[in-house]
Amino acid sequence: xxxxxxxxxxxxxxxxxxxxxxxxxxxxxxxxxxxxxxxxxxxxxxxxxxxxxxxxxxxxxxxxxxxxxxxxxxxxxxxxxxxxxxxxxxxxxxxxxxxxxxxxxxxxxxxxxxxxxxxxxxxxxxxxxxxxx
Length: 133
Ligand SMILES: [Fe+2]
Ligand SMILES: [Fe+2]
Description:
Residues 4-124 form the Hemerythrin-like domain. The model has no long low-confidence stretch (mean pLDDT 96). By secondary structure, the protein is mainly α. 20% of the residues are buried. It has a single domain, classed as Hemerythrin-like (Four Helix Bundle (Hemerythrin (Met), subunit A)), CATH 1.20.120. Helices cover 74% and strands 0% of the residues. Bound molecules: fe (ii) ion (FE2) (2 copies). One fe (ii) ion (FE2) binds at residues 55, 70, 74, 116, 120-121.
């Protein structure tokens, strides 16, 4: 699933590592504390912003034609993360078990990020020099 630009591939590894933290929560017995999920979501949101910015800058610098498509997809995920944030806040307010929210987030994010890398990010493979960025 490599794109061939080290900074981008490293970012993708970090994003999957954060999603794995949701997996780890789901793998434990008992209820999931909403604060634990909120912490993961906050770090994911930050890293997603950093990564999207980095990717779009690299593409913009070389005049990559797929930049707008990539940017549009990125906007979609940013809006979805806001929706997840609302769900987690609700769990926090109600002191609820965040397991259902965590499970929804986990399956959505793993699929979205994998598909985005394969269908959108990978199109820049071989079209942007590996030392760009
Ligand atoms: Fe992207
Ligand atoms: Fe990416």
